[in-house]
Structure formats: C-alpha cells, structure tokens
Design brief:
homodimer; alpha/beta; 434 Repressor (Amino-terminal Domain); Rossmann fold; 3 domains; DNA-binding; transcription (chains A, B); transcription cis-regulatory region binding (chains A, B); DNA-binding (chains A, B)
Chain lengths: 341, 341
DNA sequence: ATGAAAGCGCTAACAT
DNA sequence: ATGTTAGCGCTTTCAT
C-alpha cells in the first residue's frame, strides 16, 4: 500500500533512478535491454509516477484551467465536453472554475488556478470590459486562449464562431423564404456575441427592409427576456423574429404562441447556437449551429503553440464558420402549421 | 517577473524561511511583531504560494476530482455548479473528467486523476455494475463519494435524492387529482435512479390500479425514448404518463401532442429532476425537484470526514428528500387547456 | 518563538 | 548510454 517511487523501481531493476526516469518519461535514448528490465520492474511493483513531484521539478503541471461564466448556460456543457476530450487526449487535466457570471468571482478563480500552477488557461470571459483587467494579468503569466467571447482587442488569442456570418445565413434564409419585416431580439452590452450578432442583424436587415434595423429590442440571453421582448415587438407585426440565441428564441416562441400567433405561418422565429432545446421546441427552432468540436480543437492547438519562440507572436483571432440548421420555425409563410422536422 | 519564493520573503523580512512558512500557513504560533513584518514583505514582493511544492511536501494537493458520465446531460451542470462552489469555498480546486458514458473511459479518467494525486474523488458512476471495479479500486486509495447514482452495496459513501420518495409524491399527486390509469416510461438497467424509480412506480401504482404495474416501458433516459415509448403505451389509453426523468417526459409530451392527445385534459405527464427544460415545455412539466445545493453540500461534507479516525467507518448512504413541483402538465382532468404556471 | 536542516519524488545538468 | 548530484519550493522535525 505504500507509494512506489522511482527509487524502488531503480532498486528492483538494478539501475539508477535517473535511468528509470528516462525510460518511463521517454526523455532520452536508453538501452533497449535496460528499458525492458526497467519497464518490467515498474509494472511488477505497480509504479505510478507522481505528477506532483514531476510538476515541481519540470515546472509544468500538465494541467489547464477552464474558466467559464456559468456551467448551467446550456451552450457551455458541449463546449466543455469537447475541450475536456481534446485536452485529455494529450494527457492534460482540466481544472474547472465556474464564475457565477460575476467578474469578481472570475478574478478570484483565475488567481486560484494560477496559484495551482496551471500550464495554461482557457477562458470564456464573463464580460467584455469588466473581465479585461484580470484576463490581461493572467495572460501575462501563462498562455491564455479566449473562447466564444472576446475581451477587448489584443488581450489574448481567441477562438470563436463567426457571429456575423451566422447572422447573415439567417437573414439570407429569411429573405429567400419571403420574409420582409424582420425584427431582432438581442442582448445589450458589449460581450462580443451580443454585439456582433446585433451589428450583423442591423447591417443585413437594412437590405431587406429599411425599417428593420429599428425593430430591435435588447435585454439579456434568457428565456424570460425572449418572452418579454415579444410583447414589445409583436405590435409592429414583424413576419420574422430573429433572436440572438436559442434561449431568447424559446421564450419568444412560447410567448408568441400564448398570443395566438401562428409560427411559422404568420411569423418565423430563429435562434442561435443550436442547443438541444432548439430541436425540442415546438415548432422546432431554425438556428445557427456552432462548430463546437472545431472550436475546442482550435483552442487546444492555440494553447500548445510554443510561446517562447521568437518575438511575442501577434495575437490570433480565429473565427470559425457556423452552419444554418433549418427547422420548422421558419418554414415558408405558405406552409401553415409546419411539421416537426 | 521571476517567481517570488518563501526564500525571497525570508530575505526581505530578515527571518528564516521556516518562520515565513509558519506565518503564511498559520501553522504554528508566531510572534505578532514578526508576523506583521513577514506579511508586509510578502505583500510587497507579491508572494504567491506555490501549491505544487506545498502539495509535494504535505502530501495534499487541495484538489478533488469530479468524474461524471456526461457533462451534456442537462441534469449534471447544476450539480457541477453547486459542487464547484462548495469546494472552492474551502479552497479546493476541481479537476473535471467527462466519461462519455463509457465505463472504460471512466476507469482511465479515474486513474488520470489519481496520478495527479487528487485528495478525493466525487464520482457519478456511469453504470451500476460496470463501474464497480474501478470505483472500488479508487475508493481504496482516496476518500470517494458517490453522487446521484449508486455502484453496488458498500463500495463507498453515497449521496443521492430519495428516488422512492419522489416517485411516491408523484403518484400521490396523480391519485389526488383523479388519475386512475397511470403508465410508466422508465430506463432499463441497474443504475440506481432507473431501478429505484421503476420499483417505486410499480409499488405505488398497484394501489391505484392493479393493472398499472403492467403498463411499463423501459428504454433509456432520452427524449427519443420518451417519444418512442408513447407509441407503445398510448394505445392502452392511460390517463397519466409517469416518466423516469424530464428528458423522457419532454419526448413523451411532444409525441402525445403529435398524436392529438390533450395534455393534461386527457392525460397527465410527469417528469423527474426539474431541469430547466421542464419549465419550458408546453404544457410546463410537473416534476420532482432534486435538492441540488443540499446534495452538493452533503457530498462535500462527506469528503471532509477525517478517514483516519478509528476503524474504517461504516459506509454512509445519505438520501435527501425531493420536492414535488406541480405545473400545468398534470392539472386536474377537468381543467382543459391548462395555463402556464 | 525561531532557526537549521532534512527531505517529499522527480528531472535536468553534469559527469563518466 | 548510464550514474551522480543538485535542486524545484515548500513543510516539518529537531534543536535552540
């Protein structure tokens, strides 16, 4: 039951602990014969390397911190899963921190992870502005990649979906299916997803209808806000309700139904993100699917970029193309009632 | 930019590193005067303890592993959030592992966390039987608490909701609102949530209707299964569809609506867990709410139980009482149409 | 109350 | 290719 250490393996295999270390860590060339002996001894004794000691000596914990605003936001668990798999695949462990959507908690969590000597930080900032200081400080200490949301220019590398492209897909689809009076339910604030989707709507919708950019209601990314916003926008009788994410769209859908509106016959509803809820809504939500696995892979790749080579490499801002998922909530106006897809 | 160590603080404050350690870790009595000086020096230099070195020396990483079947199961993120907060509150960090619902991956993840020297393991087993071996082996090495699902008798301490009590609440509610022909859509397998909810339904429903225990369909905990199961059970015209969790209930609701059934007028539908989807469904789902914060707190408490005291303390199996949340999907049969609650 | 010194288990120079 | 020797930064005896 006592811990088996390198020393034990060295004793058992009749060579020095340095050699054993080299064999087991594969760090230097080693005699084929010795290697076999050592591995056998390690196996026999049930040796398990002590990552803590290794980390202290090598100054690398093999651990990355994952900091996110709220794990309960239904969009994040999928991202977390992909990240966890991508990282474990290269033998890095994931220290998880949930910030409760609060920049102060976020700063505390970042510090806690830094104190634990994470090799790198993967971070979805709580707030574009209020997270900046803590994020910039952290980025000065370890490689840091921003995910999904930005945090001001030049703070760190970032990976996100191309929000503008996604919104353009939605608007093109609505135009192609004959919608002419769109409106937009978005989120206030400067978070990149909120701002970019809003800006893209305003830019794209003007081509459809000069009045469209005016039909905008801004709140937060919640179901409740989706419901409330419909009360503000429905009186202007839009034929499409473009929502900044699926939660808002779910709320909008619910409220429209309560008001007796015919979706999609009278009015189309679209979301963004393609969380599971989108497929379950009635009618099922047309939405924009984020390339989660690719986002995760790209983030992991960015983390592994050797930061020591050459001058402080320019920040990268990777944007990945999303995909439109057409479901019943935006079926052509002629198609009354819609079916589930 | 170089790391500030205890030695630097000792030099700056003119005392030994041992004293500094004692001041900063609050481990032993120390002169008030010295303490002040040391703290000032630490502050001035921006000293940050190195948890890795501390862990190597003290044989405690201050880290607990959280192993779960699938973070994308919508029930888990809430539990994860509560656990994260409970643990960070006592300065423990959380290493997250997602098992992709696969016992083999689960075993690998457990080993990875053990190699990282987690102080303890919080684990939601993938499978009652197939997880047992790996879990038992892990429990022999570190304190381990099972969450939400069991893993055979006596393997480890466990914390879960009282599934039988929850199901009894549902059946009592249905009986009180005049339902007489319930049926049950559950999950096959031996996972405790599946088995206990199923058994409780069968026990409780027999009192309502001798034929009820026969109207049971067993699949998995998914929306798809909920949909499919309705096709099997609806022909027998139940007046209540009791589901083993909210995902199943969401699927059942959707399919019933497609078949033109009137919920709740003609048939009530109930879920279990109270995930956010439950409130969003139409009609909103009557369900059983798990006391998540209490479950998390209890799990954290169990982890902190000093395992070194006395004989290997008997395993604890803590069961917490759930709460019935009545919504529109089970409004009395007379109340046609229901409103959103 | 404080200091000196010995490691925790490992990797990385430096020898050989 | 292998062994020897220093530590990584900290906590913890053991002295004083």
């Amino acid at each position: 039951m006592a811990e088996v250490t390198l020393k034990d393996v060295a004793l058992a295999s009749g060579c020095s602990i340095a050699t054993v270390s080299r064999v087991l860590a594969g760090t230097r060339p080693v005699g084929a014969e010795t290697a076999r002996t050592v591995r056998a001894a390690a196996e026999a004794l049930g040796y398990r390397p002590n990552h803590v000691a290794r980390a202290l000596r090598s100054r690398s914990t093999g651990t990355v911190g994952l900091v996110l605003p709220q794990i309960t936001n239904p969009f994040f668990p999928f991202l977390v899963r992909e990240l966890e798999h991508a990282l474990h695949a290269e033998d890095r462990a994931v220290l998880l921190a949930d910030c409760d959507d609060d920049p102060v908690t976020e700063a505390a969590r970042i510090n806690a992870l830094l104190a634990r000597r994470v090799d790198a930080l993967l971070l979805i900032p709580v707030d574009e502005r209020r997270s900046r200081e803590a994020v910039a400080a952290a980025a000065a200490q370890v490689p840091l990649v921003l995910l999904d949301r930005g945090c001001g220019p030049g703070v760190a590398d970032s990976v996100a979906v191309d929000n503008a492209a996604g919104m353009a897909l939605v608007l093109a689809h609505l135009a192609a299916t004959g919608r002419r009076r769109p409106c937009f339910i978005g989120a206030a604030g400067t978070a990149s997803a909120a701002a970019e989707r809003r800006a893209a709507y305003e830019a794209g919708a003007a081509a459809l209808d000069p009045g469209a950019p005016g039909r905008v209601a801004l709140g937060d990314f919640s179901v409740e806000w989706g419901r409330a916003a419909v009360d503000r926008l429905w009186p202007s009788r839009p034929d499409a309700v473009v929502c900044a994410n699926d939660l808002i769209a779910a709320g909008a859908l619910q409220r429209l139904r309560q008001l007796g509106a015919d979706v999609p016959g009278e009015v189309a509803v679209t979301g963004f993100d393609d969380i599971p809820l989108a497929g379950l809504a009635d009618p099922a939500l047309t939405t924009v699917r984020q390339p989660l696995a690719e986002l995760a892979a790209e983030a992991a790749r960015l983390l592994s970029r050797n930061p020591a080579a050459g001058p402080p490499a320019a920040r990268r801002a990777v944007r990945l193309a999303p995909e439109l998922v057409v479901r019943a909530s935006s079926a052509g106006p002629g198609t009354r009632g819609g079916g589930s897809s």
